[in-house]
Amino acid sequence: MGSVASFNTVWFSLIGLLWAGYFVLEGFDFGVGVLAPFLAKDDMDHRLILNAIGPFWDGNEVWLLVAGGATFAAFPTWYAALFSGAYLALFVILVALIVRNVAFEFRSKRDSLAWRRGWDIAHFVGSLLPALLWGVAFTDMVAGLDIVLPRGYIGGFVGLVHPLALLGGVASLVVFTFHGAVFLSLKTTGTLRTRTRKAAKVLALPTIVIVAGLVAWVAATVSGTSRPGTLPGTVPVALGIVAILGIALSAWRTARGSEGWGFMGAALSILALTGAVFTELFPRVMVSSVSAVDSLTIWNAASADYTLRVMLIVAAIFTPFVLLYQGWTFWVFRQRLSRPEGDEVGSGGIDGSGIGPGVSDVAGGSTRAPVGDIVTS
């Protein structure tokens, strides 16, 4: 054990912030992918939905790479235990992300309705699985895993899947889906915007109920365990309450047409939930359900102090550039997207699909996005 005021604590907090940034930004990407088959009435709607996240999704995934890299460098034992014990689950997430990313790139390669629909299904599955499994993984870390030092995690894949973890997965799925609905209502116009606002309204109450149930169940589970040295249990519970209030605020503002405030409310909810996870863990990084002494902490899982110091200097230099670039991207692509003037749902195109001229898929990323082909307002 060491002093709480240390580089170990700083890097634990920074990794928590990286995961929070990833879930806020990639969360609405996942939500949009899950909602797309239900909100799109024709191919033009599908293009607009993909174009809404097209300039952002690849930049948002950088947060995952940085979070994983920071964990590997700052807490290599944590990284090793997580990626060895939960290898199969994380492999499924990786495959789903690959399929989703390929769907962005390949959807517009052929002018075939069947081809596009196939990649739309791939995009849906590639969004749904990570949105579900990330919740399972982080709930497992808080609830406790079968960790025995020095062997690490010994529970296998079955040990990762239990009722509380599954509820955590459902919670992350509905939160990200709600977040995606709010983002789409912020980025679209006309009937598509109306449908996305309705989806956010429908999702709000189930999301609040599921998140409240998860917070209560986790609080009841950890209250019966001995976790000396952690923050007061009221801290993660309070953050859970903030998350619920954030969803309610988001639903209220979105319903009133203030989607910007609605997006901030949804983002606040995800930040609070991620904060609840990391404050409940501290000073542990993985909780052992076998014995308290077998838990991985910010001390027994960390790199040398010198390594953490050098990493902090590098992060302080380069992180502002990343934040400025990503902020600039959101500013440049801040316009709402709408259907071409005179184009109605289901009109024109091949097989009555609504594929009309003048709109191209831009989901491959902002560097190749033919934004001039998009009608914005």
How would you summarize this macromolecular structure in one to three sentences?
The chain has 377 residues and is mostly helical.
Number of domains: 1
The proportion of strand residues reads under 5%
Helix content: 55-70%
Radius of gyration from CA coordinates:
21 Å
Name the overall outline: globular
Find the count of extended strands (DSSP E, 2+ residues): 6
Q: Whole-number average pLDDT?
A: 85
Structural commentary:
It is a single chain. The protein has 377 residues and is mostly helical. It has one domain. It is built from twelve helices and six strands. Helix 1 packs antiparallel against helix 7 (113-143) and helix 8 (163-187) packs antiparallel against helix 11. It is globular, with a radius of gyration of 21 Å. Residues 346-377 have low confidence and may be disordered.
Short descriptors:
377 residues, two-stranded antiparallel ribbon, mainly alpha, 6 strands
